[in-house]
Specification:
Two copies of one chain form a homodimer.
Chain A (H helix, E strand, L loop, with lengths): L19 E5 H15 L5 E5 H4 L2 H9 L4 E4 L2 H9 L4 E7 L3 H9 L5 E6 L5 H10 L4 E6 L13 H11 L4 E7 L11 H24 L6 E4 L5 H7 L4 E2 L9 H4 L11 E9 L6 E4 L14 E2 L5 E6 L4 E5 L10 E5 L3 H5 L4 E6 L2 E7 L8
Parallel strand pairs in A: 1-16, 2-3, 2-9, 3-4, 4-5, 5-6, 6-7, 7-8, 8-9
Antiparallel strand pairs in A: 1-10, 10-11, 10-15, 11-14, 12-15, 13-14, 16-17
Helix pairs in contact in A: 4-5, 5-6, 7-8
Amino acid sequence: MAQPPPAEPGMPEDEVDTPALLIDLDALEHNLAAMQAALAPTGARLRAHAKTHKSPVIARLQAAHGAIGQCVQKVAEAEILAWGGVDDILVSNEVVAPRKLARLAALCRIARVAVCADDPSALPALEAAAEGAGTWLSVLVEVDVGAGRCGMPPGPPAVELAARIAASRHLRFGGLQAYHGSAQHQRRPEERAATLAAATEDTRRTLEQLRQRGLDCPIVGGAGTGTFPLEVATGLWTEIQAGSYVFMDADYARNESPPPFRQSLFVLSQVMSAPRGSGRAVLDAGHKAVPTDSGLPLVWNRPGLRYAGASDEHGLLLAEDAALPALGEKLRLVPGHCDPTVDRFDWYVAVRGGRVEALWPVAARGAMT
Amino acid sequence: MAQPPPAEPGMPEDEVDTPALLIDLDALEHNLAAMQAALAPTGARLRAHAKTHKSPVIARLQAAHGAIGQCVQKVAEAEILAWGGVDDILVSNEVVAPRKLARLAALCRIARVAVCADDPSALPALEAAAEGAGTWLSVLVEVDVGAGRCGMPPGPPAVELAARIAASRHLRFGGLQAYHGSAQHQRRPEERAATLAAATEDTRRTLEQLRQRGLDCPIVGGAGTGTFPLEVATGLWTEIQAGSYVFMDADYARNESPPPFRQSLFVLSQVMSAPRGSGRAVLDAGHKAVPTDSGLPLVWNRPGLRYAGASDEHGLLLAEDAALPALGEKLRLVPGHCDPTVDRFDWYVAVRGGRVEALWPVAARGAMT
């Protein structure tokens, strides 16, 4: 059961019911244009990551700013995007369950669909799903370029898997998936550069061996908001999979030399308790509203106020050289991590100049299968 | 938009699509009966906390095992329960927004409803909502018995607020809310006993002063799964607000002398990547499926396997003196914290003896306003 929207178009921001997921439209539009400007002079294209926004509406705005398609992590996200009009979708992740693969193959009727693989033993299920749907699937080989999560080792093992895909009747070799997630959040630019240098070498070597094997590699996908200028500069990556750039978050703000995007995503929260003389106030947004996997949220534009602790439904607010807000006052919080925060809400409340301009569903909220 | 159910009744557990939220019905029923048996010889009644389960179905099972009503933290949760047939609901939390209070007062037509207050300046909005709906609201005074979150100081400030409520035209003084949340998770029984001894003294003193003031106190509410025998033993608390006892989680299991309930809640997850020779496997449940605010999940009944790290959609699985599971294998995870985990899913998959027996909606999933 979806929750009803917490606002109506035209309403002042301060009347929005809390907790609510706000988008600052001016900042969002800045970010869309800034990414377009950053990639325009390069050969790299944007395949934006919908694991961040979970919304065909935002996918459409990204397409209007040059994105050639979307990435997702889950088949259920691919379904929501395809049903919402997105026609080029990469599942930048492995899918092994036959029921999931049948759903993915069914999407080929309405969208161009690709998926990743990192294990030869996964190929029969991919083939069976494509054959069962009377279609073919584009399969990218995920290469572990240092993140130590999924992926084939670079070089011969990845090339061997690509060859098996290319030789299959119902699969096509779509390219390489070469993503280093944790590099996005390494704090110092030198660390990020060193990590990416190693990932680049792995990718270059694998590409060279694919060429030697006579295998065409249409896509090299990867990169995120924290590192994409590095991948772009190599000339190897053809598709940039940044997601967070549309919203940003407190964790990206902690990077030295953070990416050139503005904070556009907030959780609006209300002071629901302000015990006299206690030196604290309590907000109605705890970690059910603002997940804390990447740290606590920040308080926006209120110097001296600190979100100091989260329980399920409460946030503890402390003041240092500042007055505590009064009971009923509303504050914007900057989420520690934009992706899981978006996934907590059914609605985006899009605001501009202090007024609600639009309501957009977080259509793929909870789409985990 | 709600997600479709990941299973059908009669299906073997191993065919359930992942990640999925499982209830082991035998364990759930054990827990329901164990709580009923624990409270039966005492004067305390169970007002189970629906912040844990978010389900009118489970509320009904609790009522069949003696619960006299439900607690919630949010008006939106109260709505889902009332619409689902629960007729006695306490919002064990402060509500200050007029729109929320109007919704709460509207529920008085179909349920007995109460709410907490901890600030005299909050009373006019409560009165206005009750008057506007042509009804009255029962208001409990929340007392800060040491948790340092919401609540009036014990003694005179709490009594003064109770007197103002009792003197109001549209409000009734419903009793005291005296809950110490963090005590539930203190590891050692002696720590929990010491914390509760102080909370008990605060509550006893406040009750005595209410009596001196001539104010009847129909309810003393509080206690949770980790401490309820202590509150019950005092004879002061009339309503026990335990929630987690129906499910349990990895964090409660870390208490010394953990409560006498069985683990009944799991997240079913599948191995989606098992890079050869890497010494790891990757599960399809990361912190979007199993929140990590109270620690990482445990792997159920698979000694030697450890869930060692969560990213958004991936869980890292390591093996110590055990074989790693194969690609496609499904494992049950014990969530670190049951409450936020339940809130990630649209459906409970209720299983018994390896088969799906029922699907129940997590009806108040995302009910945060």
